[in-house]
Amino acid sequence: MAPAPALEAAFKKDEKALCFHHELMYEAKIIEVSSREEAEKNNGYQYKVHYKGWKNTWDDWVEEDRLRKLTQENRELANSLRQQVLELQRAQRAQAAVPAKKKVQSSTRGSEERQTPAQAAPPRGQKRMRDQDLEKVSVASDMPEETFTNRRAVRILMPDRLKSILVDDWENVTKQLQLVSLPAKYPASVILDQYFAYAAAPGQRSNAEADILQEVIHGLKEYFNKALGRLLLYRFEREQFFDIYTQISSPTGELAGKAVADIYGGEHLLRLFVSMSELIAQTNMDVQAVNRLREELGAMTHWLQKEPQVTKFFSSTYESPGTAYIEKVKTST
């Protein structure tokens, strides 16, 4: 049998691309392509890149998974990552500038005064109030404030449009005592699958890149299924969850045997993204894997904030569960 033809390099010599250097992407030019027969991943290719505007001493050999095609979508992602890093740096400087005495005082006031990077340098007016409200949306655990400070390097920041959805979601559930209708028209698993179809479309990624993204999508579904009942629900939603879980556990019925990722939708998926920083911090993932996951989540939230996704995947209306449900919640606390 004749040997299978070698896979073609995803990038050509002299092609311009975007290349990851640590957490950010920079425009670069492929100045050399090398095939490695022994390497199986990344199709066996390495690329020597020259970063635009950088000295030649920064030229570097990189694997294919650090490169992205120079498309408008990827340019927007690069800008989004840069803004997130700048926001994170501002938050860290603000945290470092807080006097020790003020830290002690603030730690006694409850979780509502814990600052997030989004709060460290808030815009004026209504936007500022919404960023403060977003802290109440966080489904973070009861870890000490110092733990959050030490682990901020893995924080995943939300685009403003998705922040607004999270705040509205929190207000609808906790203040208006309303619930999203379940099962969702577009459950979390469907949203994740549609993102994969978009991001791994022909010409978007190499086979190796698509395989990595598929692993990320699978992992997010697993996280969602395991975290929803423990971390992603407000108290008012728990009776609804118990009812859903009963139907899942039943041998018959519309929801029998389903996973919660096939039932709960976009709002709860966003809550998972908010809590991913703490979930990641409790794993043994290395820095490279964490950065890769953060990159994929950044690209995903960037896609979700756009039309038609943002209108399609998030509930525009919430439902009142009725007096009997509300009374049941009150008596169960």
Automatic annotation (TrEMBL):
Keyword Cytoplasm appears in the UniProt entry: no
**Region described as Disordered:** 96-139
Which ranges form a coiled coil?
A: 67-94
Q: Name one GO biological process term.
A: chromatin remodeling
Q: Does the keyword Chaperone apply?
A: no
Superkingdom of origin? Eukaryota
Chromo domain location, by residue? 25-85
Q: Which Pfam families match?
A: MRG, MSL3_chromo-like
Keyword list (alphabetical) reads: Chromatin regulator, Coiled coil, Nucleus, Transcription, Transcription regulation
Q: Which SUPFAM superfamilies match?
A: Chromo domain-like
The Gene Ontology CC terms held by the record are: NuA4 histone acetyltransferase complex; Rpd3S complex
Quaternary structure per UniProt?
Component of the NuA4 histone acetyltransferase complex.
Q: What family does the database annotate?
A: Belongs to the MRG family.
Q: What is this protein called?
A: Chromatin modification-related protein EAF3
